[in-house]
Amino acid sequence: MSTHILSKSSYMQGRQCPKKLHFAKHRRDLLAPVDDQKQALFDVGTDIGLLAQQLFPGGIDMRPETPFDFAPSIEATQKAIRNGAHVIYEAAFAHDDVLAALDILVREGHGWKAYEVKSSGGVKPYHIADAALQAHVIEGSGLRLTDVGIIHVNTKYVRQGPIDVRQLFTIASVRKEIIEEQRSVPDRIRALKAMLAMGEEPQIAIGPHCTDPFECDFMHHCWKDLPELSVFDLNRGSKHKWEMYERGILKLQDIPLNEPLTASQQRQMNGLRYGTNTIDRGCIAAFLVTLKYPLYHFDFETFTTTVPLYDGSRPYQQVPFQYSVHIQESPTAEPDHREFLGDGTSDPREALVQQLIHDLGSEGDVLVYNITFERGKLNELARDLPHHRRALEAIIARLKDLMIPFQRGWYYVPAMNGRYSIKAVLPALVPGLSYTSLNVQEGGTASFLYSQLVQGLYKGDPQQLREDLLAYCALDTFAMVRLLEVLIKAASTNNRPQDHDPETE
Asked: Rounded distance, CA 151 to CA 492, Å?
């Protein structure tokens, strides 16, 4: 016999979009397989929940033997409450045909405190909606709650020795915040149950809700009829894109000529409509003349974990584990390549910094792509390894950003489609150089795989992984060498007739 129609998770699906809930219940064939990275995120949530139980030790675990039958857990929870239990993990309640399994329930005096554990670094708006539903079900079951709290990760915690759970976590009361949300819970439950009872797909158009608070698992299905280049491919300006969509503008090319656009959006549209290249030789030349050789084309790779692995590290800190640098003594010189990759068994930062200081020397600019990232990581290394602070600050002072000419539109071709990331610029300007032949093709994958390696979760060949990571990072910096060559050539030659050259206007 079923104990519920909705669960907390399905309620939250329906709250985001009733169609999402309908598909989750009736069209699971539309779901894409869960990849390793997404599964790892689910596992982190589970691990954090178990770790947070140490804040309230000695509890009774009501986790069901099977997720398809919560009836025994609901009955056991009520029995534990009657028998005077003080702490219950995964306490299960059902009310109004809704199941709620609470992470931690704690008796305090004559009442109870309900805690939900989140792996995020703070309380998010959707946590309030989640907690309001939990409180509705638990109190509807007859249990008086004196407080409702969110246990989240304290991002300021710095590990020193064994994990200190009382420092790792922050407990935030949200009792006051959920009051307004609770008023709408009964009506929303009724509406969702009625929708499910009908069994028909709700007629709901796509909208900002498709990605708020998370990208919907069925987004690929609902968005499948959009044209290949839709208005949503316009660079930035999410609100404006939705306004145009609601006016019936679907194709990127159908955006009116008089539509107010930013400079970068207008460049993108000119490229699409007229095949216009933008090559500002003057600005490019002014940028190039500031570069001091020897030039070090440099790129970091980092990984992150929710629970810090090393002394002196923080939750979610992006820990550098790898770098590549291509060194050019002059604009026409063949680059010399240096690289570093952590061994995967210990904190890589000290060894990385020692070699980094040696490889980057003391003269010449350090060229990066997106200076904000590399500068931020170098500043963190200087903070965490203060004995290297002076050398790292000297490197920071030498940073230059290769992204600037592309970000500011000094060099733009239609194939970039409004983007200026290195993954968009490289195939547009150097089509013979590609990541597609590599086993690791982007930074997120590199970060995830190394994270799996250091935590003992990697299931493949570690040596092959090392080779794949080195190949990927090396291409990132060699790509910078080739893009710089493109800029040098552009600054020293006349543009083609169809190019837009600000110097001639």
From this structure: 59
